[in-house]
Each structure stands twice: as C-alpha cells, then as structure tokens.
From TrEMBL:
<dbReference type="InterPro" id="IPR036102">
    <property type="entry name" value="OsmC/Ohrsf"/>
</dbReference>
<dbReference type="InterPro" id="IPR003718">
    <property type="entry name" value="OsmC/Ohr_fam"/>
</dbReference>
<dbReference type="Pfam" id="PF02566">
    <property type="entry name" value="OsmC"/>
</dbReference>
<dbReference type="InterPro" id="IPR052924">
    <property type="entry name" value="OsmC/Ohr_hydroprdx_reductase"/>
</dbReference>
<dbReference type="InterPro" id="IPR015946">
    <property type="entry name" value="KH_dom-like_a/b"/>
</dbReference>
<protein>
    <submittedName>
        <fullName>Peroxiredoxin</fullName>
    </submittedName>
</protein>
Amino acid sequence: MIITFTAEGKLEGDKVTISLKDFDYKIGLIGSDYPTPEEFCLASALSCLILTIYYIAKEKNVEIKSIEGYIEGKMDPKGFQGEDKIPPGLLEVNYDLVIESSDSRINEILEEAEKRCPMRDTLTRSVKVNIKWRIKS
C-alpha cells in the first residue's frame, strides 16, 4: 500500500504559508525572520531519523532512555542566485546524534535505522519529481 503525503502553500508577501494537517507554517528566504525551506528539510530529516530509531527500538524491545540530535546542511547560495556551475540545493548534510541506551543491541538498531529512515533515503536517492505548471491570467 502506498501512502500519499500532502502539503499546500501560498505566497504571502516575501514568505510562503504552508499548511500541513491542521497547522500553518511560515517559510522565508535566507536572511528573513522565518525558517527557510532548507531548514524545514533538515528538521524533517533529523526528526525522521530520531523517530525511526525510536520505532525500530520499540519493535525489537530495545530500551532507549533518550535521543538528541543536531543536523546541518551546507549550501552555496550562488547556485540559487543563478550561477550555472554550482548546484542550487544542499551540497552536504551532516547528522550528529546522541543516543542513551545500555542495551547491547543498540548498534544494530542504529544501522537498521540508517537503512530504513524514509527522509534519509529521500535525500540520498534520486526521487522522481513531477511539476505541473498552471498559469492563471
């Protein structure tokens, strides 16, 4: 069974309001007071890996006392600004996680989580992307 995730967005001045379920989030450009799309992407990737670890640990009855994480993404803004030879997106993503667990199987859980994390997979695999443009006049 395939699950479909959705989001809706609308430009409001110099920011976009995104609707996810019953919540609205404001997203802005680099330098604005709002989180950027890249920061939302990183937040999604980090939370997904943490939740994947939690889920697999529960599946295998491995006790985890805590999980904390940090993620950073590196980007050269010249790509977004139109310089052809520089990719416009993130060039590198680095995770740093601290997991508190005394269970001897924790490393197995972490290896499996790295393989099964949907957002990590999305960031590392070429994903088919379709854009449908509709012009209103």
